[in-house]
Amino acid sequence: MTVQSATPGAAAKVLARREHTLSQRIQHLLHQHPALSPAIILLLTVVCFTAINSRFSNPAALSLLVQQTAVVAALAVGQTLIILTAGIDLSVGAITILSTMVMATLAAQNGWPAGLALAAGVVLGLAAGALNGILVTRIGLPPFIVTLGTLSIFTAIALLYSGGQSIQNNRLPGLLNWTGEGFAIGRFRITVGVLIVIALYLVLGYALSQTAWGRHVYAVGDDPEAARLSGVRSRRVLFSVYAVAGLIYGIAGWALIGRAGAASPNAIVDANLDSITAVVIGGTSLFGGRGGLLGTLLGALIVQAFTIGLSLAGVDAQYRLLAVGVLVIVAVSVDQWIRKVRS
After folding, report:
1. Which helix (H) or strand (E) holds 253?
2. Measured between alpha carbons, how far apart are the two ends of the chain, in Å?
3. What is the spatial distance between Cα 225 and Cα 240, in angstroms, rounded to a whole number?
4. Band of pLDDT at residue 20, cut at 50, 70 and 90
5. What proportion of the chain, given as a percentage, has pLDDT over 90?
6. Among candidates 154, 166, 169, which has minimal Cα distance to 264?
7. Apex CA 330: angle with CA 84 and CA 245, to 5°?
């Protein structure tokens, strides 16, 4: 009797140990490969929406998905760098719009050569990001407060400088519209703006994974004190991250002109929310030190896939917004679950 009563208990313990081990394995796998979760979600998203409407996965729809993702994906690159250091940037859209309006106004109204106007807009983005970096590292203000303040400042400057007026693409030189041009492979069209965004991901992805600077970015975000004791110059790394992010926003402004077909101070109203959403869904931790650009790219594609898929299914805009909100909460919950097993 004793053996018979102990056997089920022992079997239950073994089964529970196996279940626990399987759960831990999944958590460790997701922790080691942050892009795995968004890759699975993107695959399921494509399969589900294709089953609902076969037009979702035809080349024309996928081409539209990639083109609509390009600008948000570019902005999310800079946002990823900052979130990896446990910061956040609320001035993403303001810097991008300021850079866009400066390069368009200089070229269309002040007669500057297109290349010089483009360079001025990108350098302005770099300077704006560097200002954020100085306020965070030298004065010691929280990133949320700094970028909340510069959000208003840069938005106001862009509106004052442009007079609140849009500049249509027929008034802009070819170089500024170039990012909207492209070529087609069958029914799939690829624009120059998409190629520029891919180049950004390749360059920054290499810098994060293969250089000392990239390792220092992760170290500062994971544990600033440990990074400092290890000899990492944390303030210099933080400053460089904000400056590089500003440079990327300036380049994204160029891509935005080609995508929107104009330079408008109201072109990307939801840029801040969209970029943060892409980063979070992509598996980069809001607490810093974990994540990567591949996950961010997948996160940006997931958001746009949800938007296009639900639109093709005839779902109202309010419910599309609701679905994205639920997606963000699920993504953060998964991140918390992964961090628990880490501790």
Report:
1. helix 234-260
2. 42
3. 18
4. low
5. 48
6. 166
7. 25
